[in-house]
Amino acid sequence: MRLSFPIWCEMLVLKRLFDIGVSLLLLVLCSWLFILVAVIIRLDSKGPAFFVQVRVGQQGRTFPMLKFRTMYNGAEHKWQPPSKEEALAYKFQEQGDVRVTRVGRILRRTSLDELPQLWNVLRGQMSLVGPRPEIPAMVAIYPDYGHSRHRMRPGITGLAQVMGRGDLTLAQSLEWDLKYCETWTIGLDFKIIWQTLKGVWLRRGAY
User: Fold this and answer.
1) Per-residue pLDDT tens over the stretch 53-105
2) Is the per-residue pLDDT at 181 higher than 90?
3) H helix runs in 100-185, sequence order
4) Are the beta carbons of 15 and 189 closer than 8 angstroms?
5) What is the value of pTM for the model shown?
6) In the prediction, which pLDDT does 167 show?
7) Domain ranges across the chain
8) Residue 155, C-beta contacts closer than 8 angstroms, at least 6 positions apart
9) How far is CA 8 from CA 4, 41, 202, in A?
10) Cβ atoms of residues 161 and 119 within 8 Å
11) CA distances in angstroms from 188 to 78, 164, 199, listed in the order given
């Protein structure tokens, strides 16, 4: 059942208030963990503890997304986007990526590398739940229908993440992202958060 526009707007306000409250609380409670992880990253390999990358957000607007660095410094420049012909079959992560550091593998498997995005959530650039934001080079090769995912604020986790994460192709990820945008409710967000916690515990689809 589709929500009426006034109710949909009210729910978006509740979603934003929830994002602010949870992100602020976690940033305070996890401040010691930020320091610990940052120190371990610096000791493990050369380069900054944090990785900042331009991503495409709501309505196609770009913003700097934060992560803990999981690759060797500068390794992201060695990546090339697939062609438009190969795009829909492309998988975002692969096992045994030699660009990932020893500590980076642990951070990815536990999803701790995503924690700094709580700052993006607090600033309103992201939500706790929504389609994952992508880099402009990937968005440029989306099929036309794929841009509909940008109607929602991007999230730290989302429906595509709990349905397969790194094991999904681009086509599968877009399918789940669009389903989320079309069927979104506060209840769906809570289900995704719960499934995300289970997925992190079981370490599914993170390489």
Assistant:
1) 999 999 999 999 999 999 998 877 777 777 777 767 777 666 667 889 999 99
2) yes
3) 102-110, 117-122, 136-139, 159-162, 170-183
4) yes
5) 0.89
6) 80
7) 5-202
8) 126, 127, 128, 129, 130, 131, 132
9) 6, 42, 33
10) no
11) 37, 17, 16
Q: What are phi and psi of 42, to 5 degrees?
A: -65, -35
Q: Which residue has the tokens 């602020």?
A: 24
Selected residue with higher pLDDT from 140 and 201 = 140
3-state class of 29 per DSSP?
helix
Q: How far is C-alpha 96 from the chain's CA centre?
A: 21
Residues 9 and 3: beta-carbon distance below 8 Å: no
Give Cα separations from 56 to 38, 138, 199 (angstroms): 26, 10, 25
